[in-house]
């Protein structure tokens, strides 16, 4: 009897059986929850915050098993301000303007040092020579600095330009040390004194009344020694001196003309000063006057670092020097940032030139204002 081949089981198509759910249908139903509909897709551009929240909020309603995302920040792509926009913004500019205004509105007050602060320092001795009529130039400083008072010599601070200016201008034949200040009268016919005797670290620590009180003593030295020129080393002490020495003296009837000074003028022949319109000498005016003219200052003319239009006449019968003139140079302190060493050397060179003109008799002083040589003693 022959073997009958086994009959293979055919797969049953359950899709035709009603009520039967196939695995494919289950997957489709599961994925239908993730289908995007028109309700979920925004038609208009909305803010990122509302768009993100609205989209995922509906997902939470459809299937609570799906994870929820945290709400987004204000803006996912916030543009950062550039440096220029930050500088121009009010929150940056306003504090800067306010700080500048506060600095300009409240200037630093002058801090006068009490006498006991530098009581351990001794005043400096004058070096004016023994007799009269021997000094070509009497230099008048502000007051002894702390370094100078400590070592006992004038202009002793290593950053001070005084001694270098003397040498470079030809007033001394070599560069002197501050310790040689006592040799100036006998060797070079130069003298040194100060308007204020009290030492201090800075001139700003002196009271204005101390400058005024020192004027009568300086005038007595001028009358006694009869120098050809008194050179004020600093504009401030000249202002104090002339206010006290000639408070009611009229201005020169004919303006005093200062010849223009250039770098080569010290090597040329002496120039004879004339009297007419005041010369415009940018070399002698303060450097700041060419860039930033002061707005709120006195109406007086800017200082010219040269011979001033005032003189003291000596009527003593035995006087050899009949007139003492006044010259102003900038302070030789190294703290004076507006004038560097070359600028100061130019002023000292002009001083040497004026001295040579005066000694040769080519300098006309007839239009200068005479200030009284006798002053009441300071109280």
TrEMBL record:
Residues 1-11 have a biased composition (Basic and acidic residues). GO terms for biological process: base-excision repair, AP site formation. Keywords: DNA damage, DNA repair, Hydrolase. Gene3D superfamilies: Uracil-DNA glycosylase-like domain. It comes from Lentinus tigrinus ALCF2SS1-6. Residues 97-111 have a biased composition (Basic residues). Residues 129-244 form the Uracil-DNA glycosylase-like domain. This is DNA glycosylase. Residues 261-271 have a biased composition (Polar residues). It comes from the Eukaryota. Residues 1-26, 60-89, 96-115, 247-272 are annotated as: Disordered. One of its GO terms (molecular function) is pyrimidine-specific mismatch base pair DNA N-glycosylase activity. Pfam families: UDG.
